[in-house]
Amino acid sequence: MSSLSDNGKLNKGPGRPPGAGRGRGRTAQRGRQSEPAALAEVRQIIGTSTAEPTLLIEYLHLIQDAKGCLRHRHLAALADHLRLSLAEVYEVATFYHRFDVVEDDAQVAAQTIHICDGLPCQMAGGDTVADALAAKEGANFRIIRSACMGRCDGAPVASVDANYLTRTNAAAIQERLSNPVGAEVMVPVVDFAAYQAGGGYRFLRQCLAGKMQSAQVFTQLEESGLRGLGGAGFPTGRKWRLVAAEPGPRLMAVNGDESEPGTFKDRHYLESDPHRFIEGMLLAAWAVDADAIYIYLRDEYPHLRTLLERELAHVTAAGLCQRQIHLRRGAGAYVCGEESAMLESIEGKRGLPRQRPPFPSQVGLFGRPTLINNIETLYWTRDAINEGAAWQDMRSFSVSGRVREPGVKRVPAGISARELINVHCGGMMPGHELAAFLPGGASGGILPARLADIPMDFGSLEEHGALIGSAALIVLSQHDDIAVAVTNLMRFFAHESCGQCTPCRVGTEKAVAMLAAPKDRADRDTFTDLAQVMADASICGLGHAAANPLRCALRYFPGTIA
């Protein structure tokens, strides 16, 4: 069922294709030799019988969970155990932000406080919280400013050793340090019994019993008009049909790494009704005849990992899951929201986007054709199939910022920002007036209030230089500085660039440096050229979209950055 066995050790996924083994045939480790004591520790943590290089990231998580960090001696021992070079292990461990690599003799504080520095949290006072705690940082605790934690409706957000605090302040964080609690246990609003009582899994049972054919499902899904809700908007029914036409064996990967600042709808739906997602996922795997399913869930959602393991056990016990399901843990890399980068990460490598041919001919997970859907798309799949052409096209917006009632809002597709704010979010906060908004999170661009009446949907925002993307609406008021917001977004993109291509790696860093320079030195033409190069020449969508905040600031807010 899961990638974790009953004894807590990790099960192996499918092996790598012939000739692609990492360290294949190696008899001695390259570079630093491992210490016997460290090797024994590592084997104890991950299981002495387990040595699968594709599980490298999972092993790194297990070691860090046990030791609080990743010391060089443990990395050398892991490389020895997996018969990889130390460079291969080290490059993966240092690529992901959630891994903490330290020297063997380094002193690490007893507890770690992660404080979100995403735009919604900065607007809500995250910097003030960090500054108030900084003077007391030392042996007892340390502060790490972290990228968006997926709880923007509760900004500012912090975590103390994987326990998350929302709408927090310095005093509340210090109280949690003094009185630590166990891991958060999440009980869904709709559990397995309640879901079945409401008709859940009825359609899946019909499919498994042979009462439905995959061709019928593809047709009904195409008629519904359901599109991918992770950002790209590819027609879901067409994607399923194309993957099913590829020669088997096939696999399925679920993208649950919603790392776009301002986005938290996947978390919301899994917390409330996880079995609606699980049924959609199993329907997709049945329809394309996938041998196994890989769920890639962001590391900032540990409570959802536990929840899914528990609820999937109920589904398996009921005989509804006929495929092996592997839960894979992200490690903090926004770029892994890009499909091919996610596949690389699931395979235990750095999340570098692939140079790939058009869909669906690209090589998927472990060299096999792979169906990839995000969590929300699968969440609505059952309803879309059942209703077909009668299915109403709705959109889930993650709303944060200067509104009275932030949260996930399920509204008709094409709604305007003004209507969404006034009708569904209780209007603006007291003392705040709408000044600007981001319709699609960090990558969606920034639009002025005068454009708040245009429809927010696929194809309607592009002419204005914006994107709906993951439908993360971040609302700014007259009290927010556009230049500060743009700087925050560009720092995020610079931090999250995988570094593989020069336009993105250097372009984002150059943008941050230019934004920090005095305004009289800022050159509008240079900003324009820089944004154009990033958009045109970057390998993947991260670099393309990183130009949007700059372009929108130059177009709609002249004088703010140049």
State the shape: globular
SS-based class: alpha/beta
Taking strands numbered 1, 2, ... along the chain, how are they ordered across the largest sheet? 12-11-15-13-14
* Low-confidence parts: 1-20
CATH superfamily annotation of the largest domain: NADH-ubiquinone oxidoreductase 51kDa subunit
Per DSSP, what share of the residues sits in E-state strands of 2 or more residues?
5-15%
Largest sheet: 5 strands, mixed
- The CATH topology assignment of the largest domain is Rossmann fold
Number of structural units classed as domains: 4
The first-to-last residue Cα distance is 55 Å
Number of helices: 23
What does this structure look like?
This protein is α/β, with parallel strands linked by helices. The chain folds into 4 domains: 36-102, Orthogonal Bundle (Arc Repressor Mutant, subunit A); 112-178, Glutaredoxin; 192-389, NADH-ubiquinone oxidoreductase 51kDa subunit (Rossmann fold, 3-Layer(aba) Sandwich); 395-556, Ubiquitin-like (UB roll) (Roll). The chain contains 23 helices and 15 strands. The strands form 4 sheets. Strands 12-11-15-13-14 form a 5-stranded mixed β-sheet, with helices on both faces. Strands 4-3-5-6 form a 4-stranded mixed β-sheet, covered by helices on one side. The protein has a 4-stranded parallel β-sheet with strand order 9-8-7-10, sandwiched between helices. α2 (56-67) packs antiparallel against α3 (72-82) and α21 runs antiparallel to α23 (548-556). It is globular. Mean pLDDT is 91; it is low at 1-20.
